[in-house]
Amino acid sequence: MKNYIIISALIIIAAFAKADAQTIHALDTIYANDTKNVALFFPEPIRQGITGSDNFIFTYNREKEQYFGLLQAKPGKESNLLVVNRNGSIFSYIVRYKKQLSKLNYFIHLSNSIGNEKPIVTDSIQVETSEKSIDNRMYYYQKFCSYLLDRKQRVGRIKKRNEGIVLSVENIVFDKEELYFVIQIENNTTLDYDLNFLNLSVETRQKGKRKSLQRLYQEPIYKHYLPSKIVENETVRFVYVLHKFSLSNDRRVILELNEKDGERNIELKISHRFINNPN
Q: Environment class of residue 89 by beta-carbon count within 10 Å: exposed (0-12), middle (13-18) or buried (19+)?
């Protein structure tokens, strides 16, 4: 009887140890290269996919959610891939470059998920007010904007200068239902620059005999780290978040920088091509 109790206790301890071990998920590794597409098939449509380094590219349909994405890689250090499905399931993997690939298709099961972006709650506490929903959305904007500022990614050369002040758009990123504009202002002078406003508008070029321009101001839904002053010899970077939009060939975006009590103003024109083809 004594031996039976000892054996039973050991079995229980082993079971708890096994359960604890199962809660610690070692990230699987996915290999890719620059000559082949590695396809990842998920149990639910992909809502968002992000790689940690520019030498890895994960492409998926941003307009119409689909179940698969394609991964490619250039030689370099390993990184990570984070994918969120439509139902909030989160998948995380280590990604590495490999010249010769032995596997080109990965069929990923729900059991491989590391968690869900929304905690599962009981019906008794599932009432969410609109204020809380807004707070969650703003928190997401804040985190994603910080991620974009840390990432050295560019959409193209979009820059204009005036009397030592340089205004540029480093990146335009589409995520969910928003466009993120990563903006930079350089003050290469010995005089501080007091910001009056920085407006983003859509300009329409009217055709016909009487050509005219019409501008429609676009109100950002969130501004991340927008400064009120750029001191001498300082460079600042910040993000404007707007509801997504696209432009026809006769339209373009105008980014208008205006100095308070000064004349170092800049109008930066952004082609419809950059807006319609964001990162």
A: buried
